[in-house]
Amino acid sequence: MKRKLLYTLMACLSLWNVRANDTSEIVLLNQGWMFSQSGTDKWMTATVPGTVHQDLLAHQLLPNPFFGTNEQKIQWVENEDWEYKTTFTVTEEQLSRGAASLVFEGLDTYANVYLNGALLLKADNMFLGYSIPVKEVLHKGENRLHIFFRSPIKETLPQWASNGFDYPADNDHLDKKLSIFTRKAPYSYGWDWGIRMVTSGIWRPAYLRFYDVATIDDYHVKQLSLTDQRAEVSNELEINSILSEQTEAEVVVSYSLKNGEPVTKKKTVTLNPGINKIKIPVEVDKPVRWMPNGWGEPTLYDFTAQVVCQGKTIASDHHRIGLRTIRLVNEKDEHGESYFFEVNGIPMFAKGANFIPNDILLPTMTDERYATLFRDIKEANMNVIRVWGGGTYEDNRFYDLADENGILIWQDFMFGCTTYPADPTFLKRVSDEVDYNIKRLRNHACLAMWCGNNEILEGLKYWGWQSRYTPEVYEEFYRNYDKLFRGLLPAKVKEWDEGRSYIHTSPYFSSWGRPDSWNIGDSHNWGIWYGKKTFESSDTEIGRFQSEFGFESFPEMKTIATFASPEDYEIESEVMTAHQKSTQGNALIRTYMERDFIVPEKFEDFVYVGLVLHGQGMRYCFEAHRRNRPYCMGTLYWQLNDSWPVVSWSSIDYYGNWKALHYQAKRAFAPLIINPIHENGNLNVYLLSDKLEDSSDMTLDMRLMDFKGKKLLQKSAKVAVAANTSAKVFGCALDEWADEAQRKECYLLLSLKDRQGKEITRDIHYFLPTKDLNLPQTTVNSKLKVQDGRCEVTLSASKLAKDIFVQIPYQGARFTDNFFDLLPGETRKIVITSPEIKKGITPEITIKHIRETY
Ligand code: BMA
User: Fold this and answer.
1) Which end of the chain has the smaller Cβ count within 10 Å, N or C?
2) What residues have CB less than 8 Å from 766, skipping those under 6 apart?
3) Sign of CA dihedral 646, 651, 653, 657
4) Does domain 214-321 have CATH number 1.10.10.10?
5) What mean pLDDT is predicted for residues 594-619?
6) Nearest residue by C-alpha to atom 12 in ligand 1
7) Would you say residue 351 has pLDDT above 60?
8) Would you tell me which CATH number, out of the four given (2.60.120.260, 3.40.50.1580, 2.40.50.140, 1.10.150.20), belongs to the domain 25-209?
């Protein structure tokens, strides 16, 4: 075998999709691993898949990196080389099979792989999977596999030294910006919400595959057309025959709906040695469409392909396929250029968030954590998640869950916030990486678009790089940009995934603060936060699609307590500062808090009020964006989640606790909501609907109440809103409700009722910022009903208790609701679920409301 043929890029092969319903045999290589720091010859047990940081932690050779200022103490790891080894046994029978492959779904990053003394692979890209033919190097009995990981820091220092300047990778927390040389998750080098942990290791599954005759290297279920009557689908296979002569085989494809009869089609083919491209078209009659969350069921068909030789299925593959059309519509219009997703022919308002890797140690992500994440996404009424370009191309199970939950995925390629080299070696790596990942992901119904990078064009134009670099370097940045994002990547998308939208960067056109940024393409509106603009500025400063905007908060106290001790409970303490990576973060939180709240003295209260502020402010923006449809057709906030316990823009903290923002997103993203706002001295009420049916024959009941529950005034109106629109349904002068003095003492309860008088949704509106309200002192009464795994909390108060926050000291406990206003005289029941709740033991529940903080 020629050396250059020794390894192939693994196309779509993935352990999570492998079904053992063919004659191939898969042996997971997750046992018996040992690791060692190179040069020490001290071997210890290791976990695979994993990272060296996880293994060092398991052996107590690193302190908990999240705690205190320990981040500093673990940085030595990145400068060392690490070795992993294991042995495995191969039987005579396995050796007698036609072929054997050693498969790595991911190696992080500079890794030489040796098997029984043979150098099989020199890996240099974390985002790539490899399948290496190994039959000729395997032995009967014991086999020795040894992987040598070179430090990604030491490996790239020579490149840095010869480069002559530092790239503008400001999020990379080392002075020498090395991250851009390596195809490795950028966020692991640090970010403005990220701990620095530059990992090494076998980070995705490794296994052996024994087989005969052939493998299916790629199975693409290509949707050619879709109408209500028929879907035309092409089953496109790459079958790799290991035989040296032609052979006859039957390729069988079938599709079925859950519990339905499979429809099967067969084709007899002659397989030539090597790759055989086979196409088998099928038609699906009366296709049931995959619908996004909120619009219907995300129906999936099971598609299977099998290769049958002499009566035996020697290879098979399977995909769950959603039949749908998705188009990113960028068309000139009277305002500039549109930017929206059209799903099954219908314009869809995108509601969701930006996703960052859910852990700094990626292999610690379990199926359960992914499932919880998608439950959180779905429950918050989201329909789009952007996989942001500073992380990784996610695991297959992430996209499976997006398919199953009707969540569209906006997929960035992994480049963000800095320019990159584009020398031939680098381009070759990127080229392999995108071949692999496009082929791996293109079958997913959720995949809505590819995006070249995060904020690189914005950086080139507006982040001052012109003055930071010489004209020659700056021009080269542009040339390299074009090579990568206007050359290589779109060519690859066209080659492997034709028809899927590709945008070379996000934001697409301009930067916040520049007038043209609102009219064309998507926009990252950081005027709110970095620009200190008010949340209300989102009424007028609105892009066609808000793909980023955000605000920070501290995680709640039970999360802070996992990394800080009570003596660190000060905003600017050393430990808290180590968990606040945004240099302006604390000051900005305070600035905004002063505008709307009485800033509390106590740390715990500051944390709580900050959460409330975060949620309320962002909700204001979500509603402004929805109200301004169809001019604006998307609202994706920065950021959904955290990769470690930290102060950040997230709506869910590292331990899975929903911050106030996540509850507010859930409310603001509901299919039909009431949105009251102040406009030119009036209180106008809008209905925002993402429903596919018109909503008519409804009553909007509005009651002005004081904080003790007395009704002061009532108005009502017959209202309606057409499908998939927003509409103003009521308006009157603010003074008709309350004069300046009264506004401090009352709120408006708006209730939308159907024909039968049943409440569809409600909203509570205050006429002034919280700090200007004369909120009453009040006591919240609570009753608990505790069972195994769940606790019912019944709350009531005689006067208004604003921004109730119920806390339980169990990480990841789920609440049916939280961060809500308890109205005077109202009784509210919420349910908390957590495996730590035990019948007979009263959990330590605390309840806060805003009036208690001053
Ligand atoms: C956005 C992102 C990230 C960053 C965030 C907050 O623009 O793309 O790079 O973490 O801003 O600063």
Assistant:
1) N
2) 747, 748, 773
3) positive
4) no
5) 98
6) 192
7) yes
8) 2.60.120.260
